[in-house]
Fold this sequence. Notes:
single chain, alpha/beta, FAD/NAD(P)-binding domain, seven-stranded mixed beta sheet, 14 helices, 18 strands, 32% helix, globular, binds flavin-adenine dinucleotide, FAD, FAD binding, FAD-bd, FAD-dep_Monooxygenase_BioMet, FAD-binding domain-containing protein
Amino acid sequence: MANKSILTEKTTIPTPTDQGNMTTDKQLTVVIAGAGFCGLTAAIECKLKGFIPILVESYPTSRTQGDVLDFMHNAGRHMLAWDNGSVGKKLLETGVHTAKTLDYYSAKGELLYEEPWTFHDSHAHTQFAGHRGKQHQILVDYAEKLGVDMRFGPQYSVVEYIDSDSETGVLTKGGEKILGSLVLACDGPRSLARSQVLGLPDHKVNSGYAIYRAYYDITEELRNNKLISQLCNPDEDQAAMFMGKDMHAFVYTWGKATQLAWVLTHKDEHDIGESWSFPGKVEDALADLERGGFSDFLKEVVRNTPRDRLVDYKLVWRDPIPTWLSSTKRIAVMGDAAHCHLPTSAQGACMAVEDAVTVARCLELARGEVELALQVFERLRYNRSHVIHMSSLSNRDRAHLVEWTPEKAKEHYDSMTIPHDDWIIEFDCKADADEHFERLASEVKSGKTGTIQQLSVPAGGSFEDIPDHIKIDQPAVAIASTISNEPVRS
Ligand SMILES: Cc1cc2nc3c(=O)[nH]c(=O)nc-3n(C[C@H](O)[C@H](O)[C@H](O)COP(=O)(O)OP(=O)(O)OC[C@H]3O[C@@H](n4cnc5c(N)ncnc54)[C@H](O)[C@@H]3O)c2cc1C
């Protein structure tokens, strides 16, 4: 089979029109807290624009643990623009890219639907479904190549955000005061900035679910295993989703059938902490699969997981927050710190990348006016991010609240599949900033009033409800009582 998505000489790399060839009136020092995909992207984009990013991260290295993370075209298109496409090429090769389809199965293993792996030909070079730790390392390497000032380690943990009239910056655990023109707080779900800078309590709510996450090498012995061999095609990566009552799973294989990752969202019956590294037990995952009536195939994938490769990660829900900006408008929270996605939006990291690309573009267009840039940034991002954040819940229910059969899937496949409408994945946040910046800037300057929803650019789309008549006859399970599908009011 032809390898459909390796970058070829004919691949068009988006022209990075804005990379370093626009002069800014002021050379900004951008202090960035947190080197997840949001902070790293912000650092790279700011460096490419001639700013001086200083990135601090409390974790000592790139995380090696982890399963797969899917970047769709709306995020990947910006990464492909980096370093003449070399970053995108590396990201592509670290994960699933020769798959033709994402196959949906019932718990019993009946094939429900075959969805194309990419939705448009151009996405073959911008859809990165790879090993999370390796993807992260690729971004760290690129930032290093650009000369970004990155400071990793517990001593660089931010303990205080400084946001006074005279100073903007952070204080680290090691006692270093790092000041800049602004701070981008990309400090993730348990953001300190959310409480310190915005004064918001951490309203986390147990979503009622947790997710087992695992990644392992497929050995020769496993390739010959009767069940696992079904996922081993050296010429074509494989991607499958399994839909069961209150549970769903993904299994990916790639790298010429040498790498496997699986995740299983399940009811959270244990008091696990909100941590990346909480070890999961294979026996517990197997018991969950047994309860859900899953086929032997998925059980075999789980059973062969090396004991030290399984993590059980609590899925915590956090409501949208009313503003992302500090009162001085020189600190912004972004990425999961501003909108902490459940994995079922399939867009959390993509939104984090979009935030980062947008903020850098706004800083460039605002020519040194930091407060203006951050206010426009918030108005560009707020509604889109809110609507996609909320889809974390509805997408999960697509899998959990319907007992999918081949007949139901045939008639209602659009209610079953993860929504990938054009307004979500074809979106170009940089072009969006270019289109709306001047208008939003003049509205900020003129003091236009309204709620953040009214002042912000419309989300551009919404998510379809699952038809009631195909739902299992039971109420929706354990979600935060405070959640509404309406945007929050400020
Ligand atoms: C199981 C799972 C699967 C997912 N799958 C997808 C997917 O397929 N596609 C998708 O788009 N999204 C997915 N997501 C969501 C995605 O992982 C997140 O939305 C995204 O990683 C958020 O990035 P971030 O940089 O904002 O936050 P994080 O990745 O959490 O990064 C925050 C960083 O800040 C650091 N930090 C925190 N506090 C401090 C401090 N005080 N000082 C210094 N550093 C600090 C942390 O160590 C961390 O490195 C998934 C999430 C989960 C849990």
